[in-house]
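User: Some background: our group keeps a shared notebook of sequences we're curious about, and every so often someone picks one and asks for a predicted structure to add to the entry. Today it's my turn. The entry only has the sequence so far, pasted here. Could you supply the structure so I can complete it?
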Amino acid sequence: MGTGLEKKGFVEENIFQKVQDKFCFLGDFYAYCVDEFGNQITEWSGHMEDVDSLKKAISGDQLYSLFERVKESALEEQIIEETDYGNLKVAAIGYKTEGKLIFCWLACCVFSEEESDRSKPAIKNIKRTTTEERLYEAAGLLRMYGEQVCRLRDLEGDGKEEGEKSLSAEPEMKRLLKKAEYYTEALGLLECNQSFEEAAGRFLKLMGEYLQVDSTGLVKVLKDEQSIDVVCEWLEEGVSSSYDRVRNLERPEVFCGDKPIIVSADSVMAKEVKDYLQERHHKAFISIPLLLNKKPVMYVYFSERNRRKIWQPEEIHFIQDMIRIMESILISKHRKDSLSGSFASLQAILDNVGSCIYVQDVESGRIVFANKQLKRTFELELQSGRLNELVQSGKPVGLREGCYEIHYNEKNRWYDLYYTYIAWVDGSRVSLYVLHDITDKKIYQKKIEQQAYTDFLTGLYNRMCCEKDLSLQLDKAIAEGMTGGLLYLDLDDFKHINDGLGHQYGDVLLKSISNSLRRIKGICNSCYRMGGDEFVIIIPPESFNRFEEIIQDIQAIFSKPWFLKDADYYCTMSMGIVNYPDDGSNVQDLIKKADMAMYDAKKAGKNRNSKYSQNLAMASHKRLDMEKNMRDATADNYREFEVYYQPIIDVLSGNPVCTGAEALIRWNSAAMGFVPPSEFIPLAEYLGLINPIGNYVLKEACNACRNWNHRGRENFKVNVNLSVVQLLQPDIVEIVENTIKETGINPINLTLEVTESLAINDMNRMKEILNRIRQLGVRIALDDFGTGYSSLNHIREIPLDVIKVDQNFVQGLAEDSYSQSFIKMVAELANAIDVNVCVEGIETAEQFNVVNDMKIQLIQGYYFDRPLQLSVFEEKYVIGNQQ
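Assistant: Of course. Here's the predicted structure to add to the notebook entry:
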């Protein structure tokens, strides 16, 4: 098939098939392998009836498209993709060398209900279900094994092609072949029926022989976490154990923590480690933890006591790979093995008591009595020996007697447990346990707590719960020297959805966003709705290693449209980011700083995120000052606001002549001086002041234009910008109509400019509003054309009189052929649909000459003039031209 995998018997002996079967069993998924051309080289792993069902549920084209993506991509070697079923995903797990795909596993993964998308139908009656964590673990091991196979293939290929060089490659090939054989034998332990201790013994023997050390061992951390037991050891012939006993040993420093300890003969080490190793004559030593539920429960060690040894990187890499297999064995055995015990004879007393009662011998732990109520309630637990584990699960440390609550996850029941020591009838000392079911009380308590901590609409936690949880996570991070994250999200222009579609669709959007956030790995239980369209996400310290991935996952949610009212609508978000405790050690301080960063993202253009910095704090104070002064200025009859006018020039006649102006708001604050529009206009929109300010500009501009017309400039026109918020006012048409009547302007001389993105956000509503405005005689201009999401179809639908080309297309106009072609295309389009074109931002003679050659009628920019005060504009273009 061209893969080279048939060499060394990897295909003939079907090792790939066996390895694939083991990993599919480990990860509980279904898969087959293809070569670099997409040819199948292994059979499906898994129950055949399940495989048949999966083949019917997904198309071969979907799997092949994943293979093509992995093959063609320079970055992706592993892809997981959703299907039409909420609990079924497909995956491609490839292996490449030097950017070339060697082979690829194509997999189907049926997920448990907790990780399924419940908004989609589910595929039924599949025996194996998995989780993303288990899938990624198995996929990583599968790729690791494939790497060894490919290195062997490459070495043999090099040897055959280069003749004499094969002699130098042969030792390395033998080493890799031996390594692959040890991998294969270790993988075989995954499916063996031996106990974990027996499997561990075989594993230690494999490791000792491969590494050529004199001893390896496995120790278990006891419940008190201060002691260890030696579970098993492998010793080279003639070597004795370094332990004089194997039970209840004091836990040394080398078996603490969740990081490996690697000591070579020439290593510098901590005194505690050095003393321990010297006492036991270890010249080289490695200790690596085995994690269960992210907690070290055992440690594997490798020791050399007779020879001076320096650990090589290849050996350490091999150990780490094999430890991953060992952890998989531990998890697999832990999942299968029940914690069983034998219980002795039972006596029949106190069966008339309504509570569950049992008595346990203190010394032996033997249950000497259980009443009928307990046998009925905990029959399975008694049979499996899990009852003592249940009652001990909630016992406070050091408690000798008393009452405490326990929660039984398997049955989702709560119990009050009374615990004390008594003398039994035969005089022996026993423990008495009395369990009383309080589930109904806990359900009621949980309901009350849920109402207090849960947002009714979305089901997310609310602000009160956010502050409580953030306080706990902050204390934890400070105590353990860890770092967490806080994300503050605010939806961009959510008011437009609410006003345009109705509040019921706004609620649907909020619930959809909430459900999507909850499905992100690492934050599923730490998403909060703060109110309105604001959300907070706490990234716990244990998930901080996925910090960037979580942010990318959130951004991906908002990159796609939302289906509302039978159409797709885009709703983006702005995000503020802080890290705790680095950015603050107080809950309110952190939330405030995240809010500052979020506002900075909005000010920078929305649909982005911003990290908190000290500069933002200074900007926040400036923002508060600006907010106060802006409110004062609007309350003072807009005295500090002034309308400037930038001339619009008609150049088509050959002699450039002013035909009107665009009205532009400026703010000269008495307290802050001249404030740029780029700073105060976003704040005005955020504060809800843009409507009165915009109405003020409209009225001032109409009065000015009427005066120009009465002073001999009958055809002078004025352009006024309408913001998104203004145009979405329910009475915007009436506002325009009343302004025309009050000022006496000829409506044909008023042009209202709307942005391109605004016009297509809700096309049907925009068409209705703009048509009603045009019926008043007012002209409509489409501003900033070319910067949004236009299509020619949208341009055809919008009632227009003028298209204004954004100045971004003018900056490099003299040299940029794309900009020239774009403006020429717009001019031809405008001519076809009978509208005028105005090009903004013309600043140089070169730019003007290019545009002039295209027969563009209207031009605006600094080449002719900048925005001017009313008196200056009239002196220059109204009175001056008359003279």
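Suggested note for the entry: The radius of gyration is 37 Å. Confidence is low (pLDDT under 50) at residues 1-13, 159-169, 338-348.
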